Amino acid sequence: MNDSTIYREIYPVEAGNFTSAGEVSQGIKRTLKKLGVDSFVVRHVSVAAYEVELNLVIHSEGGTIELIIDEDCLRLNVQDVGPGIPDVALAMKEGYSTASDDVRNMGFGAGMGLPNMKRNATNFRIQSEVGVGTRIEMEFLL
Amino acid sequence: MSYQHHSVTLDKGKCVGCTNCLKRCPTEAIRVHGGKAHILDEHCIDCGECIRVCQHHAKVAVTDPLATIGRFPYKIALPAPALYGQFKQLMEINAVARALKSMGFDEVFDVARGADVVSLAVQERLKDPSCPKPLISSSCPAVLRLIQSRFPELIDNVVNVRSPMEVAAAEARMSFAKRNGVDPKDVGCFFITPCAAKMSAIRYPIGHGKSAVDGAISIMEVYGLISSNLRIPPPLPERGEFAATSFGIGWARVGGEATAAEVDDALGVDGIDNVIRVLEEIENNRLRDLVFFEGLACIGGCVGGPLAFENGFIAKSRIHELLKRLPEDKPADVVSASEMEALKGHLYFDKSIEPISGMSLDPDLHVAIKKMEQIEEICDRLPGLDCGSCGSPSCRALAEDIVMGFASENDCLFVLKDRLKEMAKQMVVLSESNRI
C-alpha cells in the first residue's frame, strides 16, 4: 500500500484458458490509453503484461494481475497459485522454457517471457516458492 | 488537432438513424443523435466500412467530379492498380489508358509505376541496420490514421516513404512538363480511386507537406465510360517509357507490396478488424521475427475499396490472371538509379507523423482516473446488451459519452423504462393516498 496510489484494479487470470488469454493485458492497455499514459510507457507495460498473463495461463493454476498507478510510477503486481519455479535464475535465462509441446505448437513457450518482462520493466522482482506460487512485481516509471 | 477533414461524410437526407453503421464502425466513431448519424472527427479513420454497410446509401465518400479536371490546361490521369481488376476480358492494360484519354486526359501515368519506385525505396529501407522491425507499410491511409490514433507507439515503425499515388503524381508532372515545355503548375494530376480515404490523404497528407495530387475521381464515376470504350477495337496506345511492372500492378491486392519489395518474413493482412487484431499482436511484441507488415483496411486490399465497382474477390482474381500475362520484369529492372535520384525530393516523408490523442479521457491523469471510475460506475448500471438504441455503439461507449458530457443515462431505453416503472409505482401510491 502506498499513499500516492491514485488508481488500482485487480484482474483475475484463469489457468489453461487460451480462449480468453490476452484479454487482461488488452484491458490494461486500453485503460492506460484512456488515461492518457505516455505511449512509450504503454508499449512497455503492454508487452510485460501480455507476457505475464500468458505465463499465468500456461504455467500457473490461476492468479491475479494488479495494476497500480502512483504519482510517479506504474506497477504490475502479479500473484499466482501454482507449482512455483524451482530455479529462478535458470528460468530468467533467454530460451529456457518448461512449456509443453502443445503450448509450443501454439507459438508460445519460447523461453522469452520472464526475460522480456525484465527488459521492459524499470524494476523487476520475482519470488517463488515451489508448491505454493510465484509473485512478480514490476515497476515502470511514468 | 481539433478539426480533421474526412472524405467519409453523411448525406443527412438519406440517413434514417438506424444502428447499422454505428455497430460496424471499427473505431466507434459514429453516434446517432436526433435520428441522424454523426461522425466523430477525431475517431474516424476514413476506412469506409460505413459506406459498405449503409443500406440507405447515406454514407458517402467525397470525391471530385470528372468535370474538375477542366481547371487545368493539361490533365494527367493516375489510375490505381485496382482499376485493372474492374473489367471483364481486359486483355491489354493500355486499353484503359486509351479510355481515360477519351475522357479528356492528355496523359495516363500508372500509379503502379509509383508502386515500383516505392517498392525499391522500401527494399532500401530494409537494408538499413537501424530499420525498426517490423517495418510497417505506409500505403493504406486508413491504417495510417488508425496507427496515429490507436497505436501511436507503432508510429516509428511506419516506413518513411510516401504512397505510390504521391510518387506517381510527382513523376508524371515533372516528366510531362519537361517533355512539353510547360509550367508544372499548369499540369493537373487526378487519381482514379477505389479508396474512400485517399481524398483526405490528398487534402491533409500524413508525413509530408502539400500533396502532388490535385484531385481524386471515384472508379464508380468513370467505370461506365471506360467500359464502353473498351469495346472499341484497337489500335491501342504504346505503354511508353513509364510502363509499370506486374509487381507494381500487384499492389492492387493484399500481399502485393511485400512481394514487390521482395521481403521474406512479411505479413499481409486485409480488412480493418483483422489489421487491428494483428497490430495488437505487434504491440504485444508477439511477432518478433516479422520484418514487414502490410496492413490494408479493405478486404482483399485496394481491389476491395468501397468506391470500386466490381466485387473485390472477382477483381482480385482478375488481377491475378492479368499479372500472369505481363512481362516478368521486376521493379529494379525498369526503374533506374537516376530515376530514383530524380525523385528523391518526392519520395520520402519530410514531416513526422503525429499521434492523435482521440482515446484519452483527459490530459490530466487525475481527472482521467476520476472519469474512468465514473465510467465503471455507470457501466454497472447499464444493461450490457450493447444494442445501440441509445445512439452509442456499446454500453461502455454510452458510459463514456455520459461522463464526457455528450449523453445522459436516460438515453438508455432500459434505464429509462426502469425509471418510468418506479415513477408509475409512486403515482399509484400517490393516487391511493387519502391525504393531500
Secondary structure topology:
The complex is a heterodimer of chains A (142) and B (436).
Chain A: E1 7-13, H1 23-34, H2 39-59, E2 63-69, E3 73-80, H3 88-91, H4 101-105, H5 113-120, E4 123-129, E5 133-141
Antiparallel strand pairs in A: 1-2, 2-3, 3-5, 4-5
Helix pairs in contact in A: 1-2, 2-5
Chain B: E1 8-10, H1 20-24, E2 30-33, E3 36-39, H2 49-53, E4 59-61, E5 74-79, H3 94-102, E6 107-108, H4 111-127, E7 135-136, H5 141-150, H6 164-180, E8 187-193, H7 198-203, E9 215-218, H8 219-230, H9 246-249, H10 256-260, E10 266-270, H11 272-283, E11 292-296, H12 312-325, H13 331-334, H14 337-347, H15 365-381, H16 395-403, H17 413-432
Helix pairs in contact in B: 3-8, 4-6, 15-16
Would you mind describing this structure in some detail?
The complex is a heterodimer of chains A (142) and B (436). Chain A is α+β, with helices and mostly antiparallel strands. Chain A has 5 helices and 5 strands; from the N terminus they run βααββαααββ. A 5-stranded antiparallel β-sheet of chain A has the order 1-2-3-5-4, covered by helices on one side. In chain A, helix 1 runs antiparallel to helix 2 and helix 2 runs antiparallel to helix 5. Helices cover 41% and strands 10% of the residues of chain B. In chain B, helix 3 packs across helix 8, helix 4 packs across helix 6 and helix 15 packs across helix 16. Chain B is elongated and about 100 Å long. The termini of chain B are far apart. At the A-B interface, helix 1 and helix 2 of A face helix 15 of B.
